[in-house]
Amino acid sequence: MAVLLSDRDGTLVPATTEVNAGAPLEIGKPLGMSMLSFFPGTIKNDWGGKAEIMITSEIRFGPMNQAAPRRINMLLQKYNFRQAPVISDYGGDVYGDPMLYYSKAYAGQRIGLTLRGVETDKISRSTWKGMEKVISTVGNLALFTSAVPYIGYISIAKNVIRILSKALVRNDRLQTSRVDLYFKEDNKKLLQTGRYLIWEHGKGATWATMIKNYRLTGAGAPEPNQLVSIKDGSPFKVAPYFVVQIDRKARKAYADFEIGAGSAELLDNWGDKSQGATVLDAIQQLAEQVNDARQLTQIEDLVSDLKKAESDEEKAMIREQIKAHSELFTKNNSALLNELLASYLK
């Protein structure tokens, strides 16, 4: 796996370079991570001319590398490997959501991102039509694979379960990429606003070759967020790749994204799959309490660091982190917890 960052003009630079192609990230401000495009690669001998594609993502935080809930970001029908177009639109024969992660108040932690593109079994038209019904039933868990075993009581969901279950264990993945990004840490791949190119380093697609010969098309191009030749504008066809964007735009629709991820994480470890909607509702409520407990644990550690801080600058940074975690409390508990926290920090 290799990662490069796109400068404002599409030029590719090392991900350790400070570019900030947008408003710089700040602790306590929103952070969004979304998938702009995916190139699955050209046709292979063992495939037919067309195939169904699924893209999933996982996010890990801080120093921990424990398993993370997997989110379904795209299901695409009838991808044509002979023509091999870059996938960037969500409509028609595409189901999905480009948002990989969102926080309304980023707290400065490392973010580990894993992206997977796989070929799936053929998806029938009736199954596609039923996806909307399934999604509306499971709410903000809909795009997490953890919810799949709990939607079996919906008749149309049986096909979805079969397709997803088989796709998640396939070995013929089109692309699997993992990258760790760090906020303001020297000699690390930097978490900052801008576009990231993520691909598998290999023959014909080395790090040096990419920087020298290719660029990413911008917003004014007929087809933005595609990797093309600097020399003649021809599209890159050597290997699969993802283009991911990080920004600090506030998104009200995703305000509870982290609660949904926490719900999915709890579902991963839940044993009883037979209760369907009852379990989903209980898990989402429990996830709110787990979220608040996690924020309090983080705040407790930061308060300890605050007492040991030696400079005013360090103290100010820690207070910003504490404030960011406090803004992630759920609505039901926010007023009480912030009142207690304010009294504690006096």
Number of domains: 2
Mean pLDDT: 75
Strand order of the largest sheet: 2-1-10-13-3-7
- Kindly name the structural category: alpha+beta
Helix-strand pattern: EEEEEEEEHHEEHEEEHHHH
**How many beta-strand segments?**
13
- Principal-axis shape equals globular
| Termini Cα gap | 47 Å
Fraction in helix: 25-40%
Outline the structure in words:
This protein has 346 residues and is of the alpha+beta class. The chain folds into two domains: 2-271, no CATH class; 287-345. It has helices at 125-138, 157-168, 207-213, 257-268, 277-308, 312-326, 331-345; strands at residues 2-6, 12-14, 31-39, 50-61, 70-80, 94-96, 99-103, 111-120, 173-181, 194-199, 214-216, 227-229, 241-247. The strands form three sheets. It has a six-stranded antiparallel sheet, covered by helices on one side. The chain has a five-stranded antiparallel sheet with strand order 6-5-4-8-9, with helices on one face.
Short description:
The protein is α+β, with helices and mostly antiparallel strands and 346 residues long. Helix content is 31%, strand content 25%.
Quick tags:
alpha+beta, 346 residues, six-stranded antiparallel β-sheet, 13 strands, single chain, globular, five-stranded antiparallel β-sheet
